[in-house]
Amino acid sequence: MELFEYSAYELSKMLQRKKTSSEELVRSYLKRIELINPRVNAYITATPALALDTAQSVDNKRIRGEELHPLAGIPVAVKDNISTAGIKTTCASRILEHYIPPYDATVVKALNRAGMPVLGKTNLDEFAMGSSTENSAFFPTRNPWDLEKVPGGSSGGSAAAVASGMAPLALGSDTGGSIRQPAALCGVTGLRPTYGRVSRYGLVAFASSLDQVGTLALSARDTALLLNLVAGPDPHDSTSLPDRDRDYIDNLTAGVENLRVGVIKQNVADSFDREVTAAVLKAASLLESNGARVEEVSLPMIDYGLSAYYLIAPSEASSNLGRYDGVRYGYFAPGKDISEMFCRTRGEGFGPEVKRRIMIGTYALSAGYYDAYYLQAMKVRTMIRREYEEVFKRYDILIGAASPTPAFKLGEKTSDPLQMYLSDVCNITDSLAGVPSLAIPGGFHSSGLPMGLQLTAAPQSERLLLQVACFFEQHPETKPRRPELDFIESPPEEGGM
Ligand code: GLN
User: Fold this and answer.
1) pTM of this prediction exceeds 0.90
2) Residue with CA closest to ligand 1 atom 4
3) Of 79, 109, 149, 413, which residue is the catalytic one?
4) What is the pLDDT of residues 165-181, one digit of tens each?
């Protein structure tokens, strides 16, 4: 077995037993990136020198017998909307193409403190707006299961990197599905934690009341390891939650007996791919035959989630993106007066989807329309929250599809924003409710592509989600698997990094 085939947990054990070194690990991942990234385009920026530096310093500490974090020496990839001091953080946008942040995000500080070598920054839809990573201003990422398909988005780079063995772990961000949908399309485990569980300090803001940093990994155990490191309160983020449940590992193997499980009717809809729906129902019966109490549950507010999200998120985005004016940092285009300078800077710096969101958001917030759109959407959000509160009095876990279909073709939805928005229909209400939500492998479609299940629980129930995920991993049909990369032999195409 090659090093990239092991889970982060196994690699951590190997490092602790000195069966390998962090330097050896990093070198093997860098080789893998060199081989695969030209075809998959998961990374915008690779940081080999920095990763090797960190690895060597961790190896030296280990030799000296210093006490190390369990993830010390394990490489990691970081989505390119998470600030890294001294390393370009582009948000896959022309407006930040050359931007080098002067500070690290709190989560990046945690990676550094633990001694995790950062392999590079991964591709995304511009400012995390999108569901296919095709809105990147630089290049689309491809799905390692089928290079003609999208990896999902917006954390498509992180999901594709983990799926193809270009990183054992990755950080992503999820506003309305951006970790879970790509995880589903790439066959990996993607966690959106409870809103506030992980600090957002240094995550470039898209829609602040929804944005959440989370993880992409190969298994529940690897997810728990990384969550243990990045979760927790942060004085720099006033919305971060107080400490609680800090060990996400200790009840992973507790099983599913007596759990009250609700199969979300709206997330096994007739309009979904039939095999996806069948996979969810099969997973539900697996829970039942192992002692869980399973029922169908209807969450009628889900039908309003997408409309509310696509008013609230653009409204917040229109305000958050006001800061890109070319004055202090980022892309700058001169003009004869200040107004022309702003117009040119923003006109040339932002891509079409970002402009669309800014326009929708500005409209929804404008005097005369505020009550009809933004305020109405906020009322819907409150009703969604209440519906979740009620449902979690009766169920411990909700299960549904993580995406209505497996990965779709590159270019298939780029000319129809509404179709693109619809690909998050399973993920969005969990985001609006602020609850933790986990996408896990749910078997394979007849096309050979992975399908994802989504597990949802009450706020701060990440341990329960991971426990159920761990249960599914023990079963042959829902066991995580890696794609065969038969394209490795052939020469890469032009373009990309
Ligand atoms: N695809 C959704 C959107 O375009 C969600 C993106 C995200 O979660 N960052 O807004």
Assistant:
1) yes
2) 130
3) 79
4) 999 999 999 999 999 99
